[in-house]
Amino acid sequence: MTTLTETPLAPLLTRLFKEAAAATSPAIARYSSEERARLLGSKTEYLDFYGSLKDLWLAVSPETGTLLYMLARSTGARIIVEFGTSFGISTLYLAAALRDNGGGRLISTEFEPSKVVRAKANLTEGGLLDLVEIREGDALETLSKDLPDRIDLLLLDGAKALYPEILSLVESRLRPGALVIADNADFSPEYLKRVRSPAGGYMSTPFGDDVELSMRLG
């Protein structure tokens, strides 16, 4: 048995995924598919765009969540940084891995205040809040200072266009062998070009349909 498969976390995740699947946003209809694609690639309009969709969970899939747990557990991660808390589903998976690794620290960041409130409530219900620090605000600011000297794992799951910038903020702290998981990385071709470049300092490969898994080289 693990934290992930026991009460209270296992039934909590089941419920949260049902809620995420049922969530709707009245704002989504205002964007055409072309406009959504443009905004996903924007480095200047992401706050307004994602703010308008605050009712959507934008959560990882159960399969990706399990992958996050397995990667964090298998590498013995103790220090994790997450870009994009949303309602905290991925945060729960990562914090569960920290608990089963014997403890640690997860720094997550989310700019939407209502999502921060809900994520903290979910983490409290899951018994994992003590392992997590959620920094409220734009990640370009919240992750620009006061980071641990050594980071074992980085999850990128916020505004896709900012993946290269967030990686740059954290990169000097990534230990050799640290993992970087980018969800929906296909929406950030600039990021993919960087981590897949032979000179970029990473070994990187697509994993599943929507995840890019990269390892920081020493």
TrEMBL record:
<keyword id="KW-0489">Methyltransferase</keyword>
<keyword id="KW-0808">Transferase</keyword>
<dbReference type="Pfam" id="PF13578">
    <property type="entry name" value="Methyltransf_24"/>
</dbReference>
<keyword id="KW-0949">S-adenosyl-L-methionine</keyword>
<dbReference type="InterPro" id="IPR002935">
    <property type="entry name" value="SAM_O-MeTrfase"/>
</dbReference>
<dbReference type="InterPro" id="IPR029063">
    <property type="entry name" value="SAM-dependent_MTases_sf"/>
</dbReference>
<protein>
    <submittedName>
        <fullName>O-methyltransferase YrrM</fullName>
    </submittedName>
</protein>
